[in-house]
Amino acid sequence: MIKTERIKQGGSPVIGFNIRRLREQKRLRNMDMVAKLQLEGIPISTSTFSKIEQGTCNPTTTQLIALQKILGCDYSDFFLPC
């Protein structure tokens, strides 16, 4: 099994905010994103994805790489200040 690192959002959920912003720009619902992530081989539930967007759960590097592909964005877009 491949170990993936979690990206800590700390007290400021910048990553989650940016994931949500990018998702909404693509007019995708949470469940659409979860389905696309699962098709990419990322096991995730809608509740976990919601927690990532809220900043209460830290995404893994593997999840961010899949989100980058799905959202058609640059990896650095996840780390832009709010």
Question: What can you tell me about this protein's structure?
Answer:
There is one protein chain. The chain is built from 4 helices and no strands. It is mainly α. Helix 1 crosses helix 3 (46-54). The protein is globular. The N and C termini lie far apart (35 Å).
Detail the topology: elements first, then pairings.
Elements: H1 14-25, H2 30-39, H3 46-54, H4 61-71
Helix pairs in contact: 1-3
- Beta-strand residue fraction: under 5%
What is the structural class? mainly alpha
Element-level helix/strand string: HHHH
Rg from Cα: 11 Å
The major β-sheet equals:
none
Average pLDDT across residues? 90
Distance between the termini: 35 Å
Multimeric state of these chains?
single chain
In DSSP terms, counting alpha (H) and pi (I) runs of 4 or more, how many helices?
A: 4
Uncertain ranges? none
The level of helicity is: 40-55%
Q: What sort of overall outline do the alpha carbons produce when their principal axes are compared?
A: globular
The count of strands amounts to 0
Descriptive key words:
single chain; 82 residues; mainly alpha; globular
Can you summarize this structure?
With 82 residues, this protein is mostly helical.
